[in-house]
């Protein structure tokens, strides 16, 4: 079982819909990232959070440390939001260094 | 946050050849990493690029296959050596300016080996 699990794996929505992508992790983390990967492979960091909630435009990310769960929400979705969204856990490894553990991603398609 | 320029963005290579991928950061970063994303899979860490010393490789990855250079705090290269079709993947570099800081990523290199 992967240490970071995302759901759903694929998601298709109509323009304007509210989107939720979920991420559960089984390890202790110091932080969690949400990334957006475009079809060409390039990656943009959307959020890094270690508690609570962050908002940037139409994107909202929440994390519940006790439940080891994070969600990414997109309000008023648009076709340009179509991408793969990746959850990344920041884990402290032996020796005190950080290790990034990636989820497999959620492929979002927003139809006009 | 810093910006990483990664080149090339894509390439098609013959088996048996080598390809070097470059990442240039617009500011000094303490940590740089190289990842591989095989088709349909999640990103997997290849190695941590250490400035002025040998990279630290993850299990399953070796220096002879993936030599890495990091001559300073703004630049790193990854070479994929003696390529085979199984090396067809997206290769990605990332950087962090320290522990508990945001990670930022290059644009990725989509490699196809024929």
Strand content of chain A: over 45%
Q: What is the H/E order of chain B? A: EEEEEEEEEEE
| Percent helix of chain A | under 10%
What's the total number of strands of chain A? Answer: 11
Distance separating the two termini of chain B: 37 Å
Average predicted confidence as pLDDT of chain B: 93
Shape of chain B: globular
Folded structure, characterized:
The complex is a heterodimer of chains A (112) and B (114). Chain A contains no helices and 11 strands. Chain A is an all-beta fold. In chain A, the strands form 2 sheets. In chain A, strands 2, 4, 5, 9, 10 and 11 form a 6-stranded mixed β-sheet that branches. Chain A has a 5-stranded antiparallel β-sheet with strand order 1-3-8-7-6, with no helix packed on it. Chain B has 114 residues and is an all-beta fold. Helices cover 0% and strands 49% of the residues of chain B. Chain B is built from no helices and 11 strands. In chain B, strands 2, 4, 5, 6, 9, 10 and 11 form a 7-stranded mixed β-sheet that branches. The mean pLDDT of chain B is 93. The chains are: A mainly beta (112), B mainly beta (114). At the A-B interface, strand 4, strand 5, strand 9 and strand 10 of A face strand 4, strand 5, strand 9 and strand 10 of B.
């Amino acid at each position: 079982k992967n240490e970071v699990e995302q759901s759903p794996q694929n998601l298709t929505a109509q323009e304007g819909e509210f989107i939720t992508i979920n991420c559960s992790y089984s390890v202790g983390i110091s932080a969690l990232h949400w990334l957006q990967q475009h079809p060409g492979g390039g990656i943009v960091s959307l959020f890094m959070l270690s508690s609570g909630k962050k908002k940037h435009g139409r994107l909202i990310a929440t994390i519940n440390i006790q439940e080891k769960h994070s969600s990414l929400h997109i309000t008023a979705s648009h076709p340009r939001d179509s991408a793969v969204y990746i959850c990344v856990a920041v884990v402290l490894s032996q020796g005190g260094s950080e290790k990034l553990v990636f989820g497999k991603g959620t492929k979002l398609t927003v139809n006009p | 946050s810093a910006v990483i320029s990664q080149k090339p963005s894509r390439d098609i290579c013959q088996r048996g050849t080598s390809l070097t991928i470059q990442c240039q950061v617009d500011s000094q970063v303490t940590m740089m990493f190289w990842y591989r994303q095989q088709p349909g899979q999640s990103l997997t860490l290849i190695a941590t690029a250490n400035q002025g010393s040998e990279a630290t490789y993850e299990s399953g990855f070796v220096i002879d296959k993936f030599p890495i250079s990091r001559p300073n705090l703004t630049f790193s290269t990854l070479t994929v050596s003696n390529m085979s079709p199984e090396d067809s993947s997206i290769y990605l570099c990332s950087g962090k300016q320290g522990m508990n800081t945001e990670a930022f990523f290059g644009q990725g290199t989509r490699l196809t080996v024929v």
